[in-house]
Write a structure and sequence with these properties.
This protein is mainly beta. The chain is built from 1 helix and 12 strands. Strands 1-4-5-7-9-10-11-12 form an 8-stranded antiparallel β-barrel. β2 and β3 form a beta hairpin. The radius of gyration is 18 Å and the shape is elongated. About 30% of the residues are buried. About 5% of the residues have low confidence.
Length: about 200
C-alpha cells in the first residue's frame, strides 16, 4: 500500500511539472505479460520462474526539453500465484526512467527509456504488524532493479494512442526466483495532454 501511495504522489508531481513547464504530458493504462527463465532446482532447493500472468499497470511521462523527459510506471500481477505450490504471492514492479521520445511520423512517436526502480514481491497469509503502519496480511521482499525498454505510440484518434511496449527488468539479488532478469511485453492505451 505504501508503494501505491508513493507512485500516486510521483504521478501527481509529474502532472504538476508538466503543467508548469507547458510541455507534453502523457498518461496510460496497459496490460502486459512477463517472461523469464524456467524454474530451477539448485542444491535441492526449488526456485520458480516469475513468468506468466497478466500485469495491469499505469504509466505517466512528461517531456521537459524537446523530446527528452521523465517517466514513471507501476505494474503488478493481477492474480496471486503460488510460490513452491503453497505460498500465495504477487510481484509488483515500479520504475522511474529517463526517456527520449523521437517523432517518427505524423501519427507515430517512439519511446526509448532507461532507469531504476524496484521489485516488491508480496507473500500473502503472513501477518505483519508495526507501530507506524499497523498490520498487513502480507510480507514484502523488496529488490532494487534497473530497467530498459521502449515502445511506439500510434495515435488513433486526436491525442489518444495505443502503445505496444517492451521492458527488460534486471533485478538485483532476486534470490526468490530462478533468474534476476525478466521481460515484460504488452500494450497500453493512453492520452497525450498538451500536444504530441
Amino acid at each position: 500500500m505504501r508503494t501505491l501511495r508513493l507512485i500516486a504522489v510521483i504521478f501527481l508531481a509529474l502532472v504538476c511539472v508538466g503543467t508548469a513547464f507547458g510541455q507534453g504530458f502523457d498518461v496510460a493504462f496497459g496490460v502486459s505479460s512477463l517472461t523469464s527463465p524456467s524454474a530451477v532446482v539448485n542444491n535441492g532447493l526449488f526456485f520458480p520462474s516469475i513468468a506468466g500472468g497478466a500485469y495491469p499497470g499505469f504509466s505517466a511521462d512528461v517531456l521537459l526539453h524537446h523530446r527528452i523527459g521523465v517517466e514513471g510506471e507501476l505494474f503488478w500481477r493481477a492474480s496471486q500465484d503460488l510460490y513452491g505450490g503453497y505460498q500465495p504471492y504477487r510481484p509488483i514492479f515500479y520504475s522511474f526512467n529517463a526517456m527520449w521520445a523521437p517523432h517518427l511520423g505524423p501519427r507515430l512517436t517512439g519511446e526509448l527509456l532507461a532507469g531504476v526502480g524496484g521489485e516488491d514481491v508480496r507473500f500473502y497469509g503472513i501477518v505483519n504488524c508495526n507501530n507506524f503502519f499497523g498490520c498487513t496480511s502480507y510480507s514484502s521482499s523488496n529488490h532494487f532493479m534497473g530497467d530498459f525498454g521502449g515502445g511506439i505510440r500510434a495515435y488513433v484518434w486526436h491525442n489518444v494512442f495505443i502503445r505496444p511496449e517492451l521492458r527488460l527488468y534486471l533485478v538485483n539479488n532476486n534470490v526468490e526466483f530462478s533468474s534476476g532478469h525478466s521481460l515484460r511485453y504488452g500494450a497500453s492505451l493512453g492520452y497525450s495532454f498538451g500536444g504530441r
